[in-house]
Amino acid sequence: MTSLTRMAVGAVALSFSLAASAQLIIYPADGQSPEKQQQDQAECQLWATQNTGIDPVTVAQTPPQQTSSVGGGERVRGAAGGAVGGLAIGAIAGNAGKGAAIGAVVGTMAGGRHARQNQAAEQQYDQYQREEMMDTWNRAVGTCMSARGYTVG
């Protein structure tokens, strides 16, 4: 292996080690030296990236999806629905305009709550996707290391 290739493999290993070290425990079951283990791990991490299409550095550096703080129209729909409901109740009580206004305020608050719930759900799903990608990548690294005579836990 040329020195340039060794440096490249070392750089890849260093960049991946932070992402992978917390997930995999690798034991040199065939008496491999620490240097051999580092080389094998770097090569397996590169193999895992190429074969899964997942780059853990990119996954770690990609910011979570930004969602609108206003929501996807939940507040507007809540205000409209509340105004219609308030209009009906206000008409029965004798003041349709006041009922519609109160309904719109209550509907806006309910719509805001729905917007926050939707935003939290989107963030949880984004985190779930990231974890699934890293699990897939770690399984690939573990499979490669197992094939090279390491015990992976």
Q: What do these coordinates show?
A:
The protein has 153 residues and is mainly alpha-helical. It has 2 domains: 80 residues, no CATH class; 53 residues, no CATH class. It is built from 5 helices and 2 strands. It has a two-stranded antiparallel sheet with strand order 1-2. Helix 1 packs across helix 2. The protein is rod-shaped. The N terminus is likely disordered.
Blueprint (SSEs and pairs):
Layout: H1 3-21, E1 26-27, H2 34-52, H3 56-61, H4 74-93, H5 96-147, E2 151-152
Antiparallel strand pairs: 1-2
Helix pairs in contact: 1-2, 2-5, 4-5
Structural class comes to mainly alpha
Secondary structure: number of strands: 2
Helix content: over 70%
Note the run of SSEs as H and E: HEHHHHE
Question: What's the mean pLDDT score?
Answer: 76
N- and C-termini, Cα separation? 29 Å
Q: Unreliable runs, pLDDT <50, ≥5 residues?
A: 3-21
Question: What is the number of helices?
Answer: 5
So what's the overall shape? Answer: rod-shaped
Rg, Å, rounded: 27 Å
The major sheet is characterized as: 2 strands, antiparallel
- Domains counted in the coordinates: how many? 2
Trace the largest sheet across and list its strands.
Answer: 1-2
Approximately how much beta-strand content do the residues carry? Answer: under 5%
